[in-house]
Write a structure and sequence with these properties.
heterodimer, A: about 325 residues, alpha/beta, TIM Barrel, eight-stranded parallel beta sheet, B: about 750 residues, Aldehyde Dehydrogenase, Chain A, domain 1, Aldehyde Dehydrogenase, Chain A, domain 2, 3 domains, five-stranded mixed beta sheet, five-stranded parallel beta sheet, 26 helices, 29 strands, about 40% helix, globular, disordered N terminus, oxidoreductase activity, acting on the aldehyde or oxo group of donors, NAD or NADP as acceptor (chain B), Aldehyde dehydrogenase family 16 member A1 (chain B), Aldehyde_DH_dom (chain B), Aldehyde_DH (chain B), Ald_DH_N (chain B)
């Protein structure tokens, strides 16, 4: 893990000067984002294999006001059996233990999820959003308490939202301190920091917030809550991935990346895989370093796999709902 | 459940997460070749032309070497047939209203849209370029070009009044080219009413397909004709009667030079290498490759270049996912290359090589960037707006992208300077390439074979004293006006000038090569200061000269009178000259503008920049008015000039020099008298003269055009045709303004 003391010193010293000088070139990022979507596609077996890989990156998510134990249970079952067994057999992939990377729920549903997964006999981690998700506009004290309670209930990954007002007013040190406290409250649990990039105002702010979240000890940085008007976009992702790469070059630590919000089609998920492959390389293409936050994506992937295996497009009732 | 289609490899790919092939089917391209029985001829007058007894050249897939078709090679008579077809087509095409041409171009755009897959697979198949590049870039832009020029055609009667289409345009394409480069040239030509004969290198089917698509549209079959043949046919095409202009087309983009500031060198190189490592190369028809291959010849070229660089101690880095067999070549980053001599060979970096070198300051970067004979395009990457603009304005190229690269749009003129040539494509500038002022006589295509380029103007006939000057007026000024003062000629000889009754009017200095060298040097020294002046300041100086001319009216008029001009007319000529100076001063203040283009957030600035040192050889007639009419626009646009005044009566120009001596900064305008042919020779062969205007004999014009090929400076030669300098259109028309400056497009994408 991190040598926190060192990073603290880094941050207070040279890094804060460096952070203040950072400039992201907006038109250049847009152009790169355009290119990357047009230049990399995979077809046939490659597509099928990539899609199955994408399944293993999914944080299967439900974050609704009407979540109850019954739909959480169904979600957990789907996480364990994401693709119909016969389809996996046809691809000779049934013994690969393909599950989603985690399930992601509200803090109040963590208990339900832990129980359901236990019943299904698997060790898929439960992730909980916390810290006043999605807006983060509650008192720091309750935000920290929320993390502790979710961890107590059995969540091993915590998706926290940052305080956007600190970014917009340029209080980088205060932001750093807050995330450090989140980190401490998580204990052994993994900290995934949601930057809510749709509300940060500029790509330069996205880069700075990414850097600070990583310095403060996040295990993952995540694009959005899925509740903002603009969610995971390619330009934002490029900036965050470049920040992850710069952080790796400077400290040797690999931080994970999680796009979330608006990733619905199998085709989208392939584009995200190739984006990470292009910008960070194959080392990042594993669940420890790459997740996709999504709820409906999985069923589209399953439909594509169905088509690949059978040569037919699936009817609605051919595939189990999640 | 239906039968399983899954292959065995999914398991391996699941672990390796490698990319697979994404083959783009080129069945339709092959089917099209089949319609011609795999034998391509020429496309002339809406029909395939397949003459018998012609040699043929195989058209090969540059990657596999597979024979795709055989292409017949044209002979002179085929070229003649194509030009004849284009001439016949010109008769109707050019007289139709612009709206009709607009409709035709729009229909062609629609046909391309409907058959775009055929176009992009054929192009990618035969050139080896990445299909993505052709499909998403070239084919889309080709349609935009047609639409843009259709709009230009539809407004031609109002927007381009006073101009007429040149006629039949001969278009020469280089051995490797993109069909898009052809579109950049044929669209404006067709839009304004010209017709085209394109001579394409052996084995290039895409232009033939385009010609077929255009020809099959119906009413105007002969407007676009494509002949395929070797470069030896270029002179044949150029000398066909009826060819009014020969346009050349640049080859595919080569390698790049990259200048990186020392303070960020390590960081930038690290990122560059990282990114290069992710580039994928492969068969052009694969939808997921970044680069294709350009055939064996290109491969040899780059291999030689890299070997040479290595032997000079350069560092060579190659990376990327590239097939190991020929003709694939990995993206290559060369650094530490010792500064090469700026000869033509070493200045061009072959594809796919990037040569990186460090610089210390922005000023140094500008010097290095401008220190090459090329002047096509450049991009500037900087987060500091002020610095980026400083470099953008300072770079001697046709296109500058700030924080972007390689963007193009039909409404933005694209061109260059120095050895990248001086023609323009796209935007309003591109249209004028195929227009001439109404009433200008057509070009005679036959060059004189008697002109000896080696001896033209070489020797100066000796002159002897012809007696003392007589007459009422004061003795005329004497000397060469160089660097702001009258100087004695290097030859220390003089030449008598006679008046209309044959009496001696005065002596003028006999200028020579050394004097021309001095004058060009003086003009160069004055150039940065003058070009840096605001148009307003330049206008003020021209107005001051106009006032001085009016004060000197009686002297000027009496000198004109001695040349046989009636007093009234002489006075009118002086007045008109003063008006010309004022008019250009005013005009130059309202130039340049901002363009808005699709696909770019932000403006594109269309700048009008001075050419540099402009050599002007004035006509014999109108010794004052022609001199001033040429001087005024040249100076107004920020050029400095070296002028050879009227040979018949240079004295009037020298009179004006007396005022310039007191008003102008030294070297701004230089006037060299002497033997016209000799001075013309010296100027045309001078490599550091950026443009030349020649108003004189057909022979002189031919020499100037030949000699100027040495540095590809833009030339405007009258070819022996007289001009009505007292008429507004010919003496002060927009043509002069167009010739007096060059366009630069400055792309400014925005975003926070």
């Amino acid at each position: 893990m991190f040598a926190f003391a060192n990073l603290c010193m880094y941050f207070r010293g040279t890094y804060s000067v460096w952070i203040s000088k950072i400039q992201v070139n907006h038109p250049a990022v847009l152009r790169r984002a355009e290119q990357i979507q047009a230049r990399r596609t995979v077809k046939k077996e490659w597509q099928a294999a990539w899609l199955l890989k994408a399944v293993t990156f999914i944080d299967l998510t439900t974050l609704s006001g009407d979540d109850t134990s019954s739909n959480i249970q169904r979600l957990c079952y789907k996480a364990k059996y994401p693709i119909r067994e016969d389809l996996l057999k046809a691809l000779n992939m049934h013994d690969k233990g393909i599950t989603t990377a985690a399930v992601c729920v509200y803090p109040a549903r963590v208990c339900d999820a832990v129980k359901a997964l236990k019943a299904a006999g698997c060790n898929i981690p439960v992730a909980s959003v916390a810290t006043g998700f999605p807006a983060g506009q509650t008192h720091l004290k309750t935000r920290l308490e929320e993390i502790r309670l979710a961890v107590e209930d059995g969540a091993t990954e915590i998706d926290v939202v940052i305080n956007r007002s600190l970014v917009l007013t340029g209080q980088w040190e205060a932001l750093y301190d807050e995330i450090r406290q989140f980190r401490k409250a998580c204990g052994e649990a993994h900290l995934k920091t949601i930057l809510a990039t749709g509300e940060l105002g500029s790509l330069t702010n996205v880069y700075k917030a990414s850097m600070i979240a990583m310095m403060a000890g996040s295990d993952f940085i995540k694009t959005s809550t899925g509740k903002e008007t603009v969610n995971a976009t390619f330009p934002v992702a490029i900036v965050m991935l470049r920040a992850i790469r710069d952080f790796f070059w400077k400290t040797g630590n690999k931080i994970g990346f999680k796009p979330a919000g608006g990733i619905r089609s199998a085709k989208d998920s392939l584009a995200w895989l190739s984006l990470v492959k292009e910008e960070l390389g194959d080392e990042w293409l594993k669940p420890e370093l790459f997740r996709i936050g999504a709820s409906t994506l999985l069923s589209d992937i399953e439909r594509q796999i169905y088509h690949h295996v059978t040569g037919r497009y699936a009817a609605y009732h051919d595939l189990p709902m999640s | 459940m239906a039968a399983t289609r899954a292959g065995p490899r999914a398991r391996e790919i699941f672990t390796s997460l490698e990319y697979g092939p994404v083959p783009e089917s080129h069945a339709c391209a092959l089917a099209w070749l089949d319609t011609q029985d795999r034998c391509l001829g020429h496309y002339v007058n809406g029909k395939w032309l397949k003459p018998e007894h012609r040699n043929s050249v195989p058209c090969q897939d540059p990657i596999t070497g597979e024979n795709l078709a055989s292409c017949l090679q044209a002979q002179a008579e085929d070229v003649a047939a194509a030009v004849e077809a284009a001439r016949m087509a010109f008769r109707s095409w050019s007289v139709h209203p612009g709206v009709v041409r607009a409709q035709h171009l729009t229909r062609l755009a629609k046909v391309i849209q409907k058959h775009q897959r055929l176009l992009w697979t054929l192009e990618s198949l035969v050139t080896g370029r990445a299909v993505r590049e052709v499909r998403d870039g070239d084919v889309q832009l080709a349609q935009q070009l047609l639409h843009y020029h259709a709009i230009q055609a539809s407004t031609q009667e109002e927007a381009l009044a006073g101009w007429e289409p040149m006629g039949v345009i001969g278009l020469i394409l280089p051995p490797t080219f993109s069909f898009l480069e052809m579109m950049w040239r044929i669209c404006p030509a067709l839009a304004v009413g010209c017709t085209v004969v394109a001579l394409v290198p052996p084995a290039s089917p895409t232009p033939l397909l385009l010609a077929q698509l255009s020809g099959e549209l119906g009413p105007f079959p002969g407007i676009l004709n494509v002949i395929s043949g070797s470069a030896s046919l270029v002179p044949v095409l150029a000398s066909q009667p009826g060819i009014q202009k020969v346009a050349f087309c640049g080859a595919l983009e080569g390698g790049l030079r990259l200048l990186i500031q020392e303070s960020v060198w390590d960081e930038a190189m690290r990122r560059l290498q990282e990114r290069m490592g992710r580039l994928r190369s492969g068969r052009g028809l694969d939808g997921a490759v970044d680069m294709g291959a350009r055939g064996a010849a290109a491969c040899d070229l780059v291999q030689r270049f890299v070997r040479e660089a290595q032997s000079q101690g350069a560092q060579v880095l190659q990376a990327g996912d590239v097939p190991s067999e020929r003709p694939f070549y990995p993206p290559t980053l060369v650094s530490n290359l010792p500064p090469a001599s700026p000869s033509k060979g070493s200045s061009s970096v072959p594809w796919p090589v990037v040569v990186a070198s460090p610089f210390r300051t922005a000023k140094e970067a500008l010097l290095v960037a401008n220190g090459t004979p090329r002047g096509g395009s450049a991009s500037v990457w900087s987060e500091r707006l002020g610095q980026a603009l400083e470099l953008g304005y300072g770079l001697q190229v046709g296109t500058v992208w700030i924080n972007a690269h390689g963007l193009r749009d039909p409404s933005v003129p694209t061109g260059g300077c120095k050895e990248s040539g001086c023609s323009w494509h796209g935007g309003p500038d591109g249209l004028y390439e195929y227009l001439r002022p109404s009433g200008t006589p057509a070009r005679l295509s036959c060059l004189s074979k008697n002109l000896n380029y080696d001896t033209f103007g070489l020797a100066v006939p000796s002159t002897l004293p012809a007696g003392p000057e007589i007459g009422p007026s004061p003795a005329p000024p004497y000397g060469l006006f160089i660097g702001g003062r009258f100087q004695a000629p290097g030859a220390r000889s003089s030449k008598p000038i006679r008046d209309s009754s044959g009496n001696l009017h005065g002596y003028v200095a006999e200028g020579g090569a050394k004097d021309i060298r001095g004058a060009v040097e003086a003009a160069h020294q004055a150039f940065p200061g003058w070009a840096g002046q605001s148009p307003g300041a330049r206008a003020a100086l021209l107005w001051a000269l106009a006032a001085a001319l009016e004060r000197r009216k009686s002297t000027l008029a009496s000198r004109l009178e001695r040349q046989g001009v009636e007093l009234k007319a002489a006075e009118a000529e002086v007045e008109l000259s003063a008006r010309r100076l004022r008019a250009w001063g005013a005009r130059v203040q309202a130039q340049g503008h901002t363009l808005q283009v699709a696909g770019l957030r932000g403006p594109v600035l269309r700048l009008r920049e001075p050419l540099g040192v402009l050599a002007v050889v004035c006509p014999d007639e109108w010794p004052l008015l022609a001199f001033v009419s040429l001087l005024a626009p040249a100076l107004a646009y920020g050029n400095t000039v070296v002028t050879v005044p009227s040979a018949a009566c240079p004295l009037l120009a020298l009179e004006v020099c007396q005022d310039m001596a007191t008003l102008f900064p030294a070297g701004l305008a230089n006037v060299v008298t002497g033997d016209r042919d000799h001075l013309t020779r010296c100027l045309a062969l001078h490599q550091d003269v950026q443009a030349m205007w020649y108003f004189g004999s057909a022979q002189g014009s031919q020499f100037v055009e030949w000699a100027s090929a040495g540095n590809l400076k833009p030339v405007w030669a009258s070819r022996g045709c007289p001009r009505a300098w007292d008429q507004e259109a010919e003496g002060a028309g927009p043509e002069l303004g167009l010739r007096a400056a060059r366009t630069k497009a400055l792309w400014l994408p925005m975003g926070d």
